[in-house]
Structure formats: C-alpha cells, structure tokens
Design goal:
Residues 1-20, 689-701 have a biased composition (Basic and acidic residues). By secondary structure, the chain is an alpha/beta fold. The chain has three domains: 27-99 and 277-515 and 524-538, ANL, N-terminal domain (Rossmann fold), CATH 3.40.50.12780; 111-272, 3-Layer(aba) Sandwich (Rossmann fold), CATH 3.40.50; 542-695, ANL, C-terminal domain (GMP Synthetase, Chain A, domain 3). Helices cover 28% and strands 21% of the residues. The chain has 18 helices and 32 strands. The strands form nine sheets. The chain has an eight-stranded mixed beta sheet with strand order 12-11-8-6-7-14-15-23, sandwiched between helices. A hairpin with a 3-residue loop joins strand 28 and strand 29 (579-588).
Length: 701
Amino acid sequence: MAEQKTVRHVEIADTHEGHQRTYPPPARLQGKDGRPKPHIGPDFAAYKAEWEKSVGPDSDKWWAEKARDCLTWFSDFKTVRAGGFADGDIQWFPEGTLNAAYNCVDRHYYKNPDKVAIIYEADEPSDSREITYRELFHEVCRVANVLRSWGVKKGDAVSVYLPMTWQAVVAFLACARIGAVHSAVFAGFSAESLRDRVNDCECKVLITTDEGRRGGKTIATKAIVDAALAQCPGVEKVLVLRRTGSKVPMTEGRDFWWDEEAERLPTYSPCEHMNSEDPLFILYTSGSTGKPKGVVHSTAGYLLGGYLTVKYVFDVHPDDRFACMADVGWITGHTYIVYGPLCLGVTTTVFESTPVYPTASRYWDAVDKWKLTQLYTAPTAIRLLRRMGEDAVKNHDLSSLRVLGTVGEPINPEAWHWYNEHAGRGQCAIVDTYWMTETGSHMVTPIPGAIATKPGSATFPFFGVDVDILDPTNGAVLKGDDVEGVLAAKRPWPAIARTVFRDHKRYLETYMKPYPGYFFFGDGAARDEDGYIWIKGRVDDVINVSGHRLSTAEVESALILHKGVSETAVVGCPDELTGQAVYAFVQMKPEFDIKATSIDALTKELAIQVRKVIGPVSFGSASPPPSASSSSPTSPRRARARLCAASSARSAPRRPTPSATSRPWRSPRSSTSSPSRSTPPWAGSKLALRSDARSKDGGSR
C-alpha cells in the first residue's frame, strides 16, 4: 500500500440523515402524454441488468456493440480494450479510425442539414439565434481550411481562448476535423494563466475574439491575449472572432480576422482519419501541487462516453433540445455542450449570459422560448435563483422539461427541493451527476426512468463504471452498506483521461499510485443502508468553488508575490452559495505596518495580486476564529476546523466538517521558501481574507 500523506480521512458524519426519502421516476419519464418512453426503465431492475452487462464477464461485447452502434468508423477496431491501472497505458478500440468532427457534424448534416444544431442564447436575449447543421458544417470546414492554410497539421496544438459564443464550438470541431489538438482556456482566466497554458502545450496558433459579453458587461478579451502573448514566443498566428466589432489592436502578420480569413476559403474540408487513441484535446485543471495539469483525452473513448451519458443520464431523444449552462472552457462544456449532444445529433445550447441577466428569470425565459427538454446547471446557480424567490420562475411555461441536472459539486437538499418543485414542478427527474475533468463523462449518477432519487445523493454508478469505497488509511475495501471512506474505480472506462500532458509520472502518482489497482478520484464518499452513494468532498488540497477546482497552493503562490506578504495559508470552508469558499490567512512582513494601511485597501491589493495570476476573484476581510491568534504549532489546524464548523451549520448537510486531527497541517507558503511549522502564518501581523460570494453571478462557469 502506497504512503497516504496526501490523503486525509473525512470523518464519518451523518450528513445524509434526514434526507432518506426517495423520489420515483416522475410522470414525464413514463412515456405518457405523447412524450418518449425512457431508454432505461421502468424500474431499478432494468438499470441493474444493463449495468451488470456493462461490467460483467462479457463487458467487452457490451462496449463493442455500443461503440459500433453509436460512432461512425472509417475502419473498424479488433481489440476492445488493452492496458490498465498498473502502468496507466489504457487503450480502447486501438485499431479503429474515425473523426470527432465527422461524428458530431457531417453524419447529421448529410441526414438532416436543416435540423437545428445549436441554440445560441446570447448575452442580450434579442441577439439569440439558431444555427443549423448545414451552417455548422460549412463554418467548421472554413475554419479548418484556415488552420490548414496556416500549416496546422495532425497532432499540432491550438489554443482556444473564447467566451461563450457559438463559434467556440466551431473552433473545437475545426481542430478535430484536421486532427489538431485543441487546448481551451477559460476566457475568465488572467493573462498570466493563459500565458502558462499556451506555453505548456506549445501551440503555434491561438483562436480568440475582439471582446466578450457577459451579464451586460464587455470583457477586453483581445487585450488579455495580447498581454499573454508578449511572453509566448511560440505563437505565430492568432485568429480573432469579431464578436462586438470594437476596434482592437491587431499585430500585423500575426493577427487575422476570423470572417475575412474564413470567407475566402471553401465550405468543404476533408476529415483527417484519426486513430481511436489519438488525442482530441488537452484541458488544464487544478491539482494539489498548484501547477495546473494538462489532462489529455483521446478521441473514440471520450466521444463514446459523451454520447452514452447524454443519451442515458438525460434520457435524450432525437427531437430533444438539450441545454447545459456551463462554459466550454471547462470539461462540462466540452462534454455536455459540444461533443456529447452533437455526437448524438440533437440540438445543444450555448448560453453566453448569466442566470440573473437581465433578470432572474433568464433561465426560465430560455426554457419557455426554446422549449428546452433538459437543463443542466450548477448548484451554485440554483442556490442563487432560490434566493431570488419564486416570482421569477412561476409565470413561465416549463412543461417541455423532462430532466433537470446538476454538476460540479454535491447539491444540498434544500436547493434540490427548490429545483424539483419550482423548475420541475414536481414532474421532472433530477440527476445529481458526479464526475470530473479526468473522467471525461459521468461516473455516479441517477438514470431517469429507472432509479429513484434521494436529494443529495449521486445514487449509483453509470454503465461500465465499477467503484469501491476504500478505507483511506490502508486501502481495504469497505464492503456492505452504511460505510464511509474514499471513492475509487476498479476498472478503466473508455472516456478516462489517458495522461497528463508530458508528465505521465504525475498522472500515475495522482490517480493510480495512492491505491494500487484503482483509479483514485480524490473524493470522500459514503454508501448508505440502501446502497446509495453520497459524495463527501475533496480529501486533498483542492477547493471546489462553484463547481470548479482551485488549488490552495495556487492561491498561496499568488498571495506570496505581494511585496508585504511573508507567509500565507489557504483553506476551503463551506459556503451557502458557492459550496466552498476560499479562506486565506496572511502574515505580513515585520517591516510592513498593517495598522498604517487600510484593511480594505490591502484586501483589494491582495485580490488584484491573485487575479493577475489566476483570474477573476473577489476577497473581503474576515475575522479569524479565536484559535487563530494562538502561536502554538497546532493552531492552523484548529483554525481550519473551527472555520469549517462555523460555516457548515449554514451549508449543505452532506458537506462534512473536517476534523482538527484529520492530518498534519501542511506547511504554509513562505516568501523565503522555508516555511515554519512552529509559527502559524497569522501570528503577529495578520489578515484573514475570504472569497466574496456576493461578487458571483451564479453561473456554472
């Protein structure tokens, strides 16, 4: 058993007590009143039978049938899977060749070119429109030809720094069409974050826009790109989408307008034949070390995972209009805005705005207007809309909805009930989905039409996913029900990430080595007396804020760059709106007189420092708990436990309170790179900062 220094035990807490009522599949999922019959149903036995086929002795046969039924291949595969967790050399359908863009666009274009592929819900509702598969096909081909004319070839990396415009989907698929590996960077990240990711993936081409629009505000996207590229010598060409039409600086010989380049090229571009295991994209995500890791996803396995989860988890049928309100800069947007729905050939939604712009009825306006059938968003957005009251939702026709989904973090039962009663009117299935960037698609999730749900539980594993709950101290399998430990998968699944870009050792050490023979998700979990799985939260130094992972080391490293900061320690604690909030304890240098400096001014300076390195963040000053003034070696742990305990009373019931004795406190971040365990960072001159949820708009971003 590998040493478990990076894993802390989450104390068993009855966080799911009192929320044991189950909700059977609702009327809209029973195939009545002209609605489609569920793919899996009518009861748990139907789910169990299919799941057992997908993980049983003949599981290779099950996967081969799904791969051939769901995907279009240029050449067939012979081997279903090879490799495993021992060396991390995992392969699915290795001899087969296909193309992601062909599967997501061409085959649907040839069959039904006038079907709506994308609903573009623009920041200003009046700018919204629909894009057909014909239009999508032509635009993808044009941009693919632009990239080819610039010398981009199979295996080259292309960075994409675009806000939520429908052309972001085009950029992904244009890369996939020619075999280029796209690396999307969330358009809210800073110039420094963009620079680091562009340099790491060594791209020569970047795709961006003049400006972005969100929540009625204009974002100077191109200016951020220019600042980043000042330190990216490898970038030779920049393709700039004209989103607002504002005049922005264009570097001669490097920067080119999307429309001007695309219009002069043909509307057809041949698809590159890609091996199943060829990389499709790189997506950077936070890790416990602080340095973002480039997670690499392959082509066939990832496509199949997206296809199957969209079909079964959301019970999607050919005429459905699927809406995931995430951002394409995150894995949720990759899988459930772009590749999953489009591979299935249904209508997907690109939502550019926020849940509360121009009013708190924005989601419900979109459902009513476009007759959306599925809605997938973050618990943070649901909690925000719940705060806004019922008036914003009650006067809308939401009868088209059948399935409501949540993503990014466990949903607290209060938000679940509000979502069920007001958005679903008690007639929709709610799927609380558990997965992560590295898994590619859902791991634990209800199947509407088959699995009765419990508010706050992710319920049972998806098809092909076989998980155990392990004792975090020794890796022993905790058998039976009513147990709690850490969650790990026993076998690979097709959509699993294949490696960390140019750092396979980190891939193995992070996911395979903690519990040999398993893939370790990094989360605590419990299984209740009925076998339902409850996700308990991170057990490493990663904070989940509004469904997005943030490394404590990343924040500490940003804070320590301030000229007056000596040491910092960052922790995550429960928050009513964002799930978790970031608390940063900061010790100033002896020569820095905090009394002579306005606390508000200093707080703003520190927030700016973090924003420069990471991206959008807002901090407010906070009072540390009484134990924070102690200079004993254990006060950091006590402070953390007390902070978490204080906020957990107001947070999601299943979000456990970390124990003060859960594990030794890691060293605080020091400007001298020699942290001291004997003196906590808040001894002497001290400042406690807390991420400010009031600045959030609740978007699933």
